[in-house]
Amino acid sequence: MVAWLVPSALFWSLAALYVGGAAIKIEGGGGGRQLLGLLLLFASYLGVYALGRMFLTGFAGAALGGIVFPVLIASIAIPTLTKVMFKLVGVSVTRVNPGATH
Fold it and tell me: pLDDT for 61-83, tens place per residue?
């Protein structure tokens, strides 16, 4: 059960950095849809972690294959997962020029 604590705790910091701080624009939907998109993002992040853990535990051992590599894979997938999960609830996520003003 401790293996699930690491990705669950790490997700909220990574999601805050990406959704709140990256050069992206979130359009459409109200606060409820955006919250639902965030919760779907959390579920999909844990799903990617679970798949990575399932496949990599036998290859890389319990520590690296069970926690470290699956967390890295799920963390790298956050931008793609964000676009897909938010699109499912009708919210558009697009990249903007970092120098442009909002």
Answer: 666 667 888 999 999 999 999 99
